[in-house]
Amino acid sequence: MESTDPVFAIAIAAELAGMHPQTLRQYDRLQLVIPQRTSGQSRRYSLRDIDQLREIARLGAEGVSLEGIRRVLQLENQVAALSRRVRELEHALADEMIARPGQRVFAAGESGDVVSIRAGTRARRNTQVVVWRPLGHD
C-alpha cells in the first residue's frame, strides 16, 4: 500500500488523526485536506491525508489560523513539487553528461543564472560557482 492509496473511511481517518469526523468534513469543505471519493461519493482518506490532518492539528495547537494553515500547506506542496522538479533536472543532466562526457561544465552566474563554460576552464571565483563538472576534470 502506498501512502496515497485511499483506504480509510471518515470515521477511521478521524480516529487516526485524533479528530471528530465533522472536523474532517469541515477541512474538506475548506479544501485543507481533500480526500478521494468512492463511486458512491463516500470520502476515503490515505495515510498522506492522515499525516496532513495531524499537521493541521499541530499547527492549530500552536495558534496558527485556518487561513495560515492553508498557506503553510500550499507552500509545503510547492516545495515538494519544486524538489521533484530539481531531481528530474538532476537526472536529465546526469543522463546528458553520460551521453556526452567531458563536453560541458555548468556554473551559476552572478545573477543566479546557469551558464555553460568550456571544459578545462575555471569559473571566476568571485562571481561564479561550479555546480557540476564531469568526473576526472579538476
From TrEMBL:
GO molecular function, one term: DNA binding
Boundaries of every HTH merR-type domain copy: 7-75
Superkingdom of the source species: Bacteria
Pfam families associated with the record: MerR_1
Keywords from the named record: DNA-binding
SUPFAM superfamilies listed in its UniProt record: Putative DNA-binding domain
PANTHER family in the cross-refs: HTH-TYPE TRANSCRIPTIONAL REGULATOR YFMP, REDOX-CYCLING DRUG-SENSING TRANSCRIPTIONAL ACTIVATOR SOXR
Protein name as annotated: MerR family transcriptional regulator
Organism in which the protein naturally occurs: Lacisediminihabitans profunda
